[in-house]
Structures are given as structure tokens and as C-alpha cells.
């Protein structure tokens, strides 16, 4: 594929900010392609698929580097395991941010032309989240912070397990989940910017930035938890598909994957706790 020719796994590891640019450009290209090539009612979902498809070979090559790094680390201590997987987590973070900005840009630039056709399902999900959040704030569903924490953590745990399973079963499958969540954040920010455009572009972008800051305290822990879970699922998958169960490499894959999943779980707890306090 063309993307593989310009953006290699080596370049991504050395210059992770490249992934931000790639995510931004692919989001715009995928949105435009689906908008003009398919019926409007399917665009908001198909755009997710068209973002993920060109990224699959790249993430596959990154996974192979993870496996190779595991093998080379067999003679070393486990203390540096984050150095073995940190760049893959950084890849997800930069990609997520690039897709978020891409969707926000598309929302603002195309809203007056195509209305909400490009973001139908994202708008529906955001409306549903707003309703649930209002119920929590109004103490319709919960009457205590502990109850709010439980509801938030329960919902986020489902996403965490999904990221783990998607990555474990499909390899790059977690990309769909990550891209979908990035599209939700991007549409949320794009809507905020669009609503304030009457006051000037700088004020509108500033308003979008402030809106982003409101979800940052808890969102950064939750999103990073999903990224870590995706890497964990990749290691569990590699343990089964590429190594004998009793080999040293398989043990390394399992231990690193388990430790990463524990990190993801702790991050999710922190994020849910912060969000419950904010609610």
C-alpha cells in the first residue's frame, strides 16, 4: 500500500508525531471518499472502516517489532518492559489525537454542506451519553458518588475488555474501537467549535480547546487504559499464535501482557474515580 511506502514502522518509532499527521490526513480522506461514494446514511460508520483499513499493515509491522523486541529481551530483566512496548502505546496516542482533530476539522468544514450526514451515529451516541450523564447528575440513576463511580467503571470496563479481545482475536481489531472513540471526541469538539464560529475562528478554537480540557482529567486515564489493553491483547495473541506454550518467549509475552493489563485496569479505576468526582 502507498502508506507503507512513506510511513514505515521504523519512522513511526523514531518520529511518533508522524502518526498524528497520518491520522489527520487519513481521517479527512476517508470521510470524503465515503461521503461521495456511498449513501449518506452509511457514511458515519463506513468512514471508520476506511480509516482503519490503510492503518492495518502499519500496525501489523509494529506488532512484529514488538515480538522481535520480546525475543531480544529474553536475556534482560523485566524492569524495562515499558521500554519494549512504550512506542506502541505512543503510536495509539498520536493516532487517536490525529483522528480527533481530523473529525473536528471535518465537522466544522462540512457541517453547512452535508449537515450531520457524516456524523449520524456519532451524534446519536453523544446524545445518549448526555442523557445518561444528566441522569447521573440529577441522581435519577444514582444517589451517591460511589454509585456513580460504579456505573462509570462498569461501562468503561466493557470498553476495556472489548479493546483486549479485539486486539487478541483480530490483531489490529482494537483500531476500530480506538478510531470510533476518537470520532466521538472529534465530533464533540467540532460541534463546540462550530457553535462558536459566529464569535470568530480564534474564539471558536479556544472554546473547543476548553471543551477538550473538561474531558482531559478523566479521559486521559481512560483512553490510555484502552491503548494499554490493546497492546496487552496483542501480546496474548502473539503468545498463542507464534510461540510454543512452554517456551521462554511465550512466558515473556504472557507476563508482559498481564502486567500491562493490570496497568490498564489501574488507569481505568483512576479515570472512573476522577469522572465520578466531576459528575
What does this protein structure show overall?
The chain is mainly α. It has one domain (2-278). The chain has eleven helices and no strands. It has helices at residues 2-6, 9-14, 17-37, 43-52, 56-72, 81-114, 120-137, 145-170, 174-195, 201-242, 248-278. Helix 8 (145-170) packs across helix 9 (174-195). The longest helix is centred in the last third of the chain and has 42 residues, at 201-242. The model has no long low-confidence stretch (mean pLDDT 77).
C-alpha geometry: globular
Q: What value does the average pLDDT take?
A: 77
| Computed structural class | mainly alpha
Number of domains: 1
What pattern of helices and strands is seen along the backbone?
A: HHHHHHHHHHH
How many helices? The count is 11
Q: How many β-strand runs?
A: 0
Helix content: over 70%
Unreliable spans: none
**What fraction of residues sit in β-strands?**
under 5%
Biggest pleated-sheet summary: none
Rg to the nearest angstrom?
20 Å
Alpha carbon gap, first and last residue: 45 Å
Question: Quick summary of this structure?
Answer:
By secondary structure, the chain is an all-alpha fold.
What are the SSEs and their pairings?
Blueprint: H1 2-6, H2 9-14, H3 17-37, H4 43-52, H5 56-72, H6 81-114, H7 120-137, H8 145-170, H9 174-195, H10 201-242, H11 248-278
Summarize this structure as a short list of keywords or feature phrases.
single chain; 279 residues
